[in-house]
Write a structure and sequence with these properties.
The complex is a heterodimer of chains A (about 290) and B (about 350). Chain A contains twelve helices and two strands. Chain A has helices at about 10-35, 50-55, 60-90, 95-110, 110-125, 130-135, 150-175, 180-190, 195-220, 225-230, 240-250, 255-280, and strands at about 35-40, 45. The longest helix of chain A is centred in the N-terminal third of the chain and has 31 residues, at about 60-90. The two termini of chain A are about 35 Å apart. Chain B is an alpha+beta fold. In chain B, strands 6-7-8-3-9-10 form a six-stranded mixed sheet, with helices on both faces. Chain B is globular and about 75 Å long. The two termini of chain B are about 40 Å apart. Classes of the chains: A mainly alpha (about 290), B alpha+beta (about 350). The interface between A and B is medium-sized, with 17 and 25 residues.
Chain lengths: ~290, ~350
Amino acid sequence: MKTQNQKAWFFVLPVLLLVAFNALIPMMTVVNYSVQETFGNNIFFWEGVRWFEELLNSDRFHAALGRQFLFTGIILAIEIPLGIAIALAMPRSGPWVPVCLVLMALPMLIPWNVVGAMWNIFALPDIGLLGYFMNTTLGIDYDMTQNPFAAWATIITMDVWHWTSLVVLLSYAGLVSIPDAYYQAAKIDGASSWSVFRYIQLPKMKQVLTIAILLRFMDSFNIYTEVFVMTGGGPGNSTTFLSIDLVKIALGQFDLGPAAAMSLIYFAITLLVSWLFYTLMTKDDAK
Amino acid sequence: MAKITLSDLKHSYYPNPKGPADYALKEIDLEWSDGGAYALLGPSGCGKSTLLNIISGLLTPSNGKILFDDKDVTRLPPNQRNIAQVFQFPVIYDTMTVYDNLAFPLRNRGVDEATVNTRVMAIAEMLEVTDMMGKKAAGLSPDNKQKISMGRGLVRDDVNVVMFDEPLTVIDPHLKWKLRSKLKELHQKVRATMIYVTHDQTEALTFADQVVVMQEGEIVQIGTPVELFERPAHTFVGHFIGSPGMNVLPCEVRDGGAFFGDNLITLEGAIEQGAGTAEIGVRPEFVTLGDTGLPAVVHKVSDVGRHAVVEAKVGDISVKAVLESEAPAQGASTHLSFDATKTRLYRDGWIATRTAP
């Protein structure tokens, strides 16, 4: 009874090769770097877990990690409710549906560095529309390059503009899949519009929202391009998120070992938090 | 609980309906008495769901009025009409427990928790779902889900009417029968006016005291199941109800009699004056095979267990007969005779004979 068909392995082989070349081998290279020191010329010295220990005890890493969590937290707290609200306000049928959908999808079609450049110019105090308006018309001292608060506000606004659409589109897909009978039954049962949201719309959107939250978490936790173009991590270190800091260490200082160790820890945190989110949000379904 | 009156009701889904073809409902006048069990029967697209949605208030009719106990409710929204509706697919609130599902309509109306509890437990008892009250409603089987959505309708004691929109569509065949008898039993217990919409004649005939048969937005006949079977007012009712449906044979009216080919067919009574295509209608149950009558050839015999359905050809026209006794062999020659008291003339589909005095 133990005869198994070993041929099946051949069908997995192409995928295995693909994964090996685009994930496993690069990853192992990073693991290799993370335990060694190099001064170039392809000469390496064994360092063991030294880089990991140093990194986990470094204030610089703690600060970047703190900024990263704060940023992602703010992004999720704004984009998820806002996305749901916009999806609820969108028409379910009629000629405006395609118009709304295309308008929603537009920001997501723009390349990330272009988004960064757009908002950078938009926010410049002397020539940018937003910057000029804030400083001259409203009289608020707003300069992204000088004021950390202004930098944060601009990056958050930029991200909300760029990515809320994703939450909107996913929520909308969840909403339109609810059969009319649910709304009719709720009307007959005398449910308030809050009850309709709480007991019909939200439960039916749960699965797509899980995906939306996961995607937004991963994307915002790994944000690099827009911030790099807009502030380069400044003013000072105020917008130096993990990825920005990582690139500074790896390419700016050319500390390959510490950068590799940081990459691995960064990856582990992203994975862990995603897993936590997913497990928490789907734990009810198993019952 | 209430008497329901529909007066001069018309509905079109077009904003400016032109001809009668634009109307989903054409001229409905009906009166349903308090506490009755009614069925709306008709094929898909005949307007029965439109009518149901108008009664529940999900749709406002283009024309006409709906009265609950002589109170005009035509423009009232569903939650102010005190009605309950059970849909084709069970609608339950997934995240709530069975208990909370049943309590939901009461809590929304601000009923105090003690009353909610007694009402919910009473309904749960009737539906035999007391053992699953603490469970999440999402995990239930379709028939139990449908029971819960029925329960949400019955839990309120102020409902004027409970409506069922093809509620057994997603239920497994062996559970359909159980749920149907449960429904009948519930109706006897709560005595609420109930309207059951279906395209399944068995469901309509077993549930209702009175069946309304609809076709293309019109009511063709209202009657008890026996009336619909024995004396269809329209050939459509003859076709739609019964298995197999009524035989409809082309005929010619001359000298006050109906002739099928050259044979005079005896009818239940005198033929009413009028014009239009004349047809003879007789149910297969009232056709007998023998030595006298219309000469015919047995074309096909299907044995359905308790009886056999014989399809015989008179010339080119086939006539079905239901035989309790042994059926003749295929290809055999025979003679058909019709039970005169159950044989009628139809003009343009509508009945055109008077019952014998």
